[in-house]
Amino acid sequence: MTATRSDGAAGTGLVLFAHGARDPGWAGTVHSIADRLAQHSPSLLVECAFLDFIAPDLREAVARLSARGAQRIVVAPVFLSAGGHVLRDLPQRLSELQPAYPALRFEVLPALGAVPGVIDAMARACADALDPAKRS
Hints:
Oligomer: single chain
Number of domains: 1
CATH topology: Rossmann fold
CATH class: Alpha Beta
Number of helices: 4
Order of helices and strands: EHEHEHEH
Shape: globular
């Protein structure tokens, strides 16, 4: 899934921004996050975007959200931690986009892998994988 639908008025758009890979199947997890968001918040405007190799890129995702009425774009970096792509590449791309969308406000969330609840979920998944009673 690349985008969720919304009948709602202008508002906030969310971009799930990930690295990308030569294998298009790599994007499945990012699209799964978008699908879960659509289930929990059907009116939320969501697009996936990729830094390399996989479409759409950030420019295309922002264009789609803008066309769907977003006035504010929140970018969620789907990275384990904030390295060069999150600290340099993402801000650079957003600064290049801003002149084309002067009315849009851009915000960037922390790298998702650094969010305490995500760290807890990954730790639980590792512990569960080691516990034969919890494996399915």
